[in-house]
Design brief:
Blueprint: E1 2-4, H1 9-22, E2 35-40, H2 46-61, E3 66-70, H3 79-97, E4 101-103, H4 108-120, H5 125-128, E5 134-137, E6 141-144, H6 152-161, H7 178-193, H8 197-226, E7 227-229, E8 233-236, H9 243-257, H10 266-276, E9 283-286, E10 290-295, E11 298-303
Parallel strand pairs: 1-2, 1-4, 2-3, 4-6
Antiparallel strand pairs: 5-6, 7-8, 8-11, 9-10, 10-11
């Protein structure tokens, strides 16, 4: 298993917890391996380097292998680009190490922030389900989030109880990032009127996730029957299937094709549904230079056209 560790409280707690579990008394010796992986974005100067040094020292203390990488694109600042770089690094590290699992430390607070962020962007059911507890990462690895049901406060309390230090990322206090505004401004405002709001949002996300799983299963069956992938993607029009199934199938297709998802809004997904259900025809350009055209009872998608 590869553990993504930034040096922050959440990821340090994840490292300590998994290391502890692996070394529990047992009649059998521990199997498998744990590797700490740290990606240095180098966006905070000496602070970024200090975080890397801290994680490397933690790996040495626990006698765990360490893999680190420093970004050569220090001018990047937007959250999505930074996230993609980290995931690419973790995927490559898992491949190099032969790891089946990659563990990252998202908390229940992260999940609430994600749900609110998606809601404000006008997301659909998948976005309102929040962060997935696990998902595929490439062909052979699975990304898991073991702390997703644990609160940020609980994590810090646990670390203090074992006198384990961690790093504080100064960029987490900046209001330049939308997620930080949600964390420091919006959520406290909501809690001033609804004290149990974060727990309620977490419960709603879990319920939504169950519904999404059912829709995803139907969408996968629909995609198998209606979508042909070649030089272009050909979708056979369907006037009977409901929008949630078709839109979810299209989101699955985007993921498989590695087309850009971040710029796709609910309006774009609805437009695709209108083409597939034959309620709209013509030509439409989608984010990522993807051309959509209706032709002879089909919808043709081509990237770069």
């Amino acid at each position: 298993m590869v553990i993504g560790c930034s040096g922050g409280a959440d990821s340090v707690a994840l490292v300590r917890a998994l290391h502890h579990l692996r070394h529990q008394p047992s009649s059998d010796p521990p199997t498998g391996f744990l590797t700490l992986a740290h990606f240095n974005h180098a966006t905070r100067g000496e602070e970024s380097d200090h975080d890397e040094t801290f994680v490397r020292a933690l790996a040495d203390q626990l006698e765990l292998p360490f893999v680190g990488q420093r970004s050569d694109q220090t001018d990047l600042r937007d959250e999505e680009s930074l996230r993609k770089m980290r995931l690419r690094f973790l995927k490559e590290t898992a491949e190099q190490q032969g790891a089946r699992y990659v563990a990252v430390a998202h908390s229940s607070d992260d999940n609430v922030e994600t749900v609110l962020h998606h809601l404000l962007r006008g997301t659909g059911p998948t976005g309102l389900a929040g962060i997935r507890p696990y998902r595929s990462l490439g062909q052979d690895a699975v990304l898991i989030r073991p702390l997703l049901s644990v609160s940020r406060d609980c994590i810090r309390t646990a670390l203090r109880s074992i006198e384990q230090s961690w790093c504080e990322d100064s960029s987490n206090t900046s209001r330049d990032y939308r997620r930080n505004w949600i964390r420091h401004e919006l959520i406290p405002l909501i809690q001033s009127k609804y004290p149990d709001a974060t727990e309620a949002i977490s419960r709603a996300a879990v319920t939504q996730r169950d519904w999404v799983r059912s829709i995803e299963s139907m969408a996968e069956d629909w995609r198998t029957q209606h979508v042909d992938v070649g030089d272009a993607v050909v979708i056979h029009c369907d006037v009977e299937t409901d929008a949630p199934v078709i839109i979810t199938a299209m989101q699955q297709l985007w993921s498989i094709q590695a087309w850009p998802m971040q710029s796709m809004s609910q309006t774009h997904w609805q437009r695709i549904y209108q083409f597939v259900s034959a309620t709209q025809t013509g030509v439409c350009m989608l984010p990522g230079a993807i051309r959509m055209e209706s032709a002879d009872g089909c919808v043709v998608l081509k990237c770069g056209g």
